[in-house]
Amino acid sequence: MSTRLEHLRSAREQKLTALRQAGIDPFGAPYPDRTPAADLHTAHANTSGEALDDAPVGVRVAGRIISLRPQGKAGFAHIQDGTGRIQLYLRLPELDPASALTWENLDLGDHVGAEGHLMRTRTGELTVRTTHLTMLAKALRPLPDKHAGLQDREERYRSRHLDLLTNSESRAVFAARSRIIAAIRRTLDGEGFLEVDTPILVPLAGGAAARPFLTHHNALDRDLSLRIATELHLKRLVVGGIERVYEIGRIFRNEGLSTRHNPEFTTLEAYQAYAGYREIMDLTERLIQAAALATNGTLQAGELDFSGPWRRITMAEAVRQQTGIDFTTLTTDEEARAAVADAGLSAGAATGATWGALLAHLFETHCEAALIQPTFVIGHPVETSPLARRDPHDPRLTERFELYVLGRELANAFSELNDPIDQRARFEAQLAERAAGNSEAHPLDEDFLAALEVGLPPTGGLGIGIDRLVMALTGAPAIRDVILFPVLRES
User: Fold this and answer.
1) What sign has the CA pseudo-torsion 335, 341, 346, 348?
2) In the structure, what pLDDT confidence band is assigned to residue 151 with cuts at 50, 70 and 90?
3) What is the pTM of this model?
């Protein structure tokens, strides 16, 4: 703690002691029956000062002191609650002794309750003429400077409470996040989906290509993982007869940090029996449009236009447009490797790379960043889609789409693979990749295969990254700006 902060804290502790010695609790009792500041401003927006003087309106308010202006035997202060701010006016001769002592020992950041009646100042500001002041919580640390706030972005993440207190933009982002999730829930609930909870601690982390966090359950003496997706459990519920099901929940992946990646994040996963990926495209549009309206009241978000229908393009066409290589004319892995090498893109043409792996590699490295407006990318290769149904017109591809916005993957969806024999073969191929050193290859999940053998109806599945969606709709530059308490490196 700096010398300056120690001095400020010491001064505040002296005031705390003075209150206690006078029998005033610096960390007071609950303060019910208060009126939010915004309600007072709304209810009395057109009430004149004369009308308030003629017919006094008694009020109780509470909040944090954000400004103090003592003026001899009187003074002004502003308090802020969760809805806004309102001014207090006090005259010491009108206060009881406890209220007067509380006023004399106030600091910025303290929580107080105030009783009195409404008035307007000479400047017309709605104000509570306070007759009783109650200390509710003494702040021992000062707030950041009201003008500078928290300028250091890293410090805003580490001290989110101070960030929210001093930056209205941060409060707006997290209020928008709540509205986005509520809008998604309303839309799914309205279409007959059932919200469920599935396990976070799992014996085998599947449903995605990612490295899990590992832990150990002492009582069971059993190694477990934190889930990397909710997919496999949700599809078991579809097998069990829940034809429309979804979960909004936390996912954990032991991966690096970036403006788009946090080791724990929030996803929506939804599954609809007897639907395919094209029906899920339409559902995705409806969900995100509902979220955009809830956030901004419009389908525009900065440069983004979420009015539909959104652009749809195959992965092969996107690669052709950016690199000139037409994968639809290449029939073998050798032809694909040669075409990539001839185009001077040999960094992706590793020995043994398959047609599908090369297609996915070129898309990731040359195409993603150009997809700014909402775009559905379809025609994903089997190699990168171990849980998706094969395209009946081209068995190298799957019935899958990814939604890209601002060059970022925002959603991922398939016509789910419901053939347990094909699924086992793909899991086994993933095991071979794992044996070759790919730590993110999908494990073989016998319990999930057993459920598939009971019979999964044709099903469309969807995953949306909630954090990235909030980024897109609010203009937040980094995923840490939309997660209240992101994972950070040690300071």
Assistant:
1) negative
2) confident
3) 0.91
